[in-house]
Amino acid sequence: MRSSVSHARSIAVLTGAGVSAESGIPTFRSNGGLWQQYRFEDLATPEAFQRDPKFVWTWYEERRRSIAKAQPNAGHLALAEMERRAKRFTLITQNVDGLHDRAGSKNVIKLHGDIWVLRCLRCRREEVNREELQSLPPYCDCGGMLRPGVVWFGEALPEGAMERATEAVRHAGVFIVAGTSAQVYPAAGLIPLAIRNRATVIEINPEETDFSADVTYALRGTSAEMLPQLLGDGS
User: Fold this and answer.
1) 203 phi/psi in degrees, rounded to 5
2) Full-prediction pTM beyond 0.90?
3) Of 7, 76, 100, 112, catalytic
4) Which of 158, 164, 165, 125 is nearest to 141 (CA)?
5) pLDDT band at residue 217, thresholds of 50, 70 and 90?
6) Is the pLDDT of residue 7 over 90?
7) Which residue among 138, 141, 153, 222 has its CA within the 20 to 30 Å range from the CA of 52?
8) In which residue ranges of the chain is CATH 3.30.1600.10 found?
9) Are 66 and 19 in contact (CB under 8 A)?
10) Distances (CA, A) of 75 to 16, 164, 221
11) Which percentage of the chain shows pLDDT scores above 90?
12) Rounded to whole angstroms, how far apart are CA atoms 185 and 31?
């Protein structure tokens, strides 16, 4: 299995919330404290933001502050090192926290956007802002309201993101699926695509998923434990 990774001409990786959970970031479905009483529709839809942008931004700013304190874990770092060694490498993530970037990954396709990006509803300009926001909701220099640069329920994925992800998986000799239950589409559809294309598919998850029986290797463990082992050098 390690030799499959080290000798692969092309590697694609799909990561989910489990990778970031190991850095202390709660998954979307485990909102803590007072947020437990709210539905996702109250927090992460265009309709919710239109109805009460300050309320939605308060939740996102709390998430941003929590993420800012987190550090990339061994799984993030192993993927960055894998990219440095690989001839061709694409990291496809469903996470919005930016920890892959901070770990050193370069070729990252962010299917669900980036929580550190602010997008103006008026001029459509995007900016990266990692500072604590002083007023909620924030506003652009043009006077337009800014929204989080993430994909909300009911919204399309970033333009071209799924097409680029699909192309990467089609050409991958090895496809690694780490920290995701593989239940959210269209990302989950990349797994059967890799299987049909006869890639070596490595699943890393503490629990069995719907695709576990069909992949080449199903590794039971966390991403922080298993991903460094795939480097094959004990690091």
Assistant:
1) -100, 130
2) yes
3) 112
4) 125
5) very high
6) no
7) 141
8) 28-69+119-150
9) no
10) 12, 23, 11
11) 84
12) 22
- 115, 63 Cβ separation under 8 angstroms: yes
What are the tokens at 224? 């922080």
Give the model's confidence band at 235: pLDDT under 50 very low, under 70 low, under 90 confident, else very high.
Answer: very low
Show the tokens assigned to 27. Answer: 């998954």
Report the amino acid identity of residue 85: R
Q: What count of other Cβ atoms lies within 10 Å of the Cβ of residue 208?
A: 12
**Token pair 């220099």 is at which residue?**
141
- How confident is the model at residue 234, as a pLDDT? 45
Query: Which pLDDT score, from 0 to 100, does residue 55 have?
Result: 94
Residue 112 is among the residues annotated as catalytic for this protein = yes
For the chain, what is the total number of helices (H) and then of strands (E)?
A: 9, 9
Domain with CATH 3.40.50.1220 in the chain: 2-25+72-112+157-231
Which three-class secondary structure string do you get for 43-54?
Answer: CCCHHHHHHCHH
Would you identify the CATH topology of the domain 2-25+72-112+157-231? Rossmann fold (3.40.50)
E strand segments, the chain: 11-15, 89-93, 108-110, 113-120, 126-128, 146-150, 174-178, 200-204, 217-219
CATH 3.30.1600.10 for the 28-69+119-150 domain, yes or no: yes
> 178 near 17, Cβ under 8 Å?
no
